[in-house]
What does this fold into?
Amino acid sequence: MSGRILLVAALLSAAPAAAGADTIDATATTLLAGRQDPRDGTVHTVVPFYETLSLQASDLRNPWFSDTRIVVAAWGLLQAGDPLDGTTGTGDVDLAYVEGRTAGRRLTLRAGRQLVFGGAARALQLDGLDARARLVDGVGVEVYGGMPTTPRFASDQGDAVAGGRLFYRPSPRLEAGASFVHVLGQGRTERQEAGFDLRVAPAPVLTIAVLSLFSTVEERLAEAALQAIWQPLRTVELTLEAARTAPDLLIPRGSIFSVFAEQTRDEAGGVLYLRPLTRLRLVVDGHAIDDDSGLGGRAGARASLALGRDHATTLGAELRLLELPTKGLLDARTFAVRRLTERLVTTLELSADWLDPAVNGQDRSLTGVATLGWDFAPGWRGVVTGVAGETPLLERRLEILAKLVYQATLRVREVRP
It folds into this structure.
C-alpha cells in the first residue's frame, strides 16, 4: 500500500508549480470517543481518536489545462486503551487526484487515486489514469488503467486493471454505453466483464435505467438490472426494479470466498415514497427474492412526522421483515428527535428484533439508545450516548459512549485581475 501512496503523491506533485488556486475548500473533522467494550467476561476501555480531512483546490491556472482541480480525502485512527485487535493506529487515503481539461475542453484527464463509475467499472477505485473524450454528435469514449485500490479492512482487489466505455449521449434525457473491464491478480484474470447500460427519460416524469454485465471468463451473466422511476408529483415517487446478480462473481476469482458465495440471486419489487402532508413522510417497499436457498422476500415501511413550529420534534417508526427458507428477521424500531435549543439536541430510539433461527438459544433482541448532543462552541460538539438492552450475544448490555467532535472548514478565494 505504501508504494501506491507514493505513486499518488508523485502524480499530485506533477501539477504545474506555477499554478495558482482561485478557490481552496478544506474541511477537517476530529472525533475523540471513549467507550466500554465488554468481552471475555471483562469490561475493557477503548478510546479511539479519528481524523478525517477533505481538500479541494479548483480553478488552478496553468498554460496546458483548464478547469484544473486537486481533490484529496483521507482519514486516520489512533486507539488508546485496549482495542480488540490490538491495532493502535491505522488510516487510508480515499481520494487523491489531479483533474483538468484540454483540447478545447473535449478531453478530460484525471490522475491519482480515484473512483471510476459507469458500465462494467461499477464503482472501481484505482491508482492510475482516467481519460474521457467527447468526440462528435454526442459520441464519447472513456479509457482508464492502473492498480486497483484495496480499501482498509477489505480483501485484495487485484494487481492491475484496464478498461473503457464507449457512450452515446445526444441529450440529457438519453445515454447508452458499451463497456469492458479486465482485472489481473497474481498473474491470472480476477475479473473480466463486458457490459451494456442505458438511461432514458421518455417523459419528464419517467426515467428508465438498464444495466447488463457478462463475465467473459465464466461465460455467464454477472449482473442485470432494470429500474423505472415514476414521479407524477413532487410528493409521490414510485420505483419498480428487478435485478439478477451472481454474488460469486463480485468476489475476485482468486479468493477462496468465491467458492462459498451464491451463484445466482434474483430480486423484483418496488418502493413507494409519499409526502401527503408537509410534515409527514411515508416509505413502503417490498421485494421478492429467489436465491440458492429458495423463494422468499423482504418488505418494510417507514413513517416520520415533524412537529412544532420550527419542526423541532420528529417522531418516527420503521418496520422491516425478511423471510427466506433458511432464515427470517422481523425488526421494529421507533425514534424521536427533539431540538431543545439551537445548540442542544436529544434523541431516543427503541428497537426490537425477532430472529429465526435463534442465536445462542435466544430468538429476540431489545435495545434502547439515548443521545444528547451539545454544540457548545463554534465548530465544537459534545455527544453522550447511552445504550442498554438484551441481545443474543450479551445477556445484559449497558454502555456509555462519550464523543468530542471538532470540525474546521477553511475557504480561501483569490480574486485576480
Summary: The longest helix spans residues 2-13. The first strand starts at residue 21 and ends at 39.
